[in-house]
TrEMBL record:
<dbReference type="InterPro" id="IPR008030">
    <property type="entry name" value="NmrA-like"/>
</dbReference>
<dbReference type="Pfam" id="PF05368">
    <property type="entry name" value="NmrA"/>
</dbReference>
<keyword id="KW-0560">Oxidoreductase</keyword>
<dbReference type="GO" id="GO:0016491">
    <property type="term" value="F:oxidoreductase activity"/>
</dbReference>
<keyword id="KW-0521">NADP</keyword>
<dbReference type="InterPro" id="IPR051609">
    <property type="entry name" value="NmrA/Isoflavone_reductase-like"/>
</dbReference>
<feature type="domain" description="NmrA-like">
    <location>
        <begin position="3"/>
        <end position="230"/>
    </location>
</feature>
<protein>
    <recommendedName>
        <fullName>NmrA-like domain-containing protein</fullName>
    </recommendedName>
</protein>
<dbReference type="InterPro" id="IPR036291">
    <property type="entry name" value="NAD(P)-bd_dom_sf"/>
</dbReference>
<comment type="similarity">
    <text>Belongs to the NmrA-type oxidoreductase family. Isoflavone reductase subfamily.</text>
</comment>
Amino acid sequence: MVKVAVAGGTGGIGRHIVDAILNTQLHHVVVLSRSPYHADLQSRGAEVIAVSYDDPTSLENALRGVHTVISTISDTTDGNASVTSQLALLQAAVQAGAKRFAPSEFNARPTRSNDPIDLYTYKAVVTEAAKNSGLEYTLFESGVFMNYLASGTKGVGYLNPLKFVFDVENCSAKIPGDGNNEISWTRGEDVGAFVAASLELESWPEVSWMAGERKSFNEILKLAEKVRGQYIPG
């Protein structure tokens, strides 16, 4: 059993990861949050610690005794804020003596500084810092969260609804390019289970790939049309 801290673990993909780790009953889970009150998590045995990413001392204290730090910090409206918070978390992990760090990756492609998708460009900065931190690290690459296809329903899980390429609720789609390239699609619940299982590995690879399905946008479109009817091009 090790102590695992999940930053951003009260919602989104972080909550799926926290749930999965708690389900294993193998590790002590610390959830870093801006609020100390999350009764649903605390009732299941998670320790919730309120932190400020602007306060290095609070972060370092929260991570004392933690073996593995998993970041799920994400701000789609301000990538710079995500970078600043994650770098502060990484520095605190080093200072507190943590052994492992996983940046908030969960991409549809490998991280690179010239990535054409704005949402991903900031991730490369944190990845580079993790490489140079001296901590063991891995990049959890999951592709697109399949739950997004269920935006507007309970199927979205803990994720914020996002109509990425497909708006299944309103039968429309905006497919980039010719739509024939295969990409990975993974449910948030499966991402959580994968990350939880990775805690048992003796060593982490640089990249931890996962895929619930490998399908092109056009293949997803055919499935959506079968379920919902004719689609209107965006």
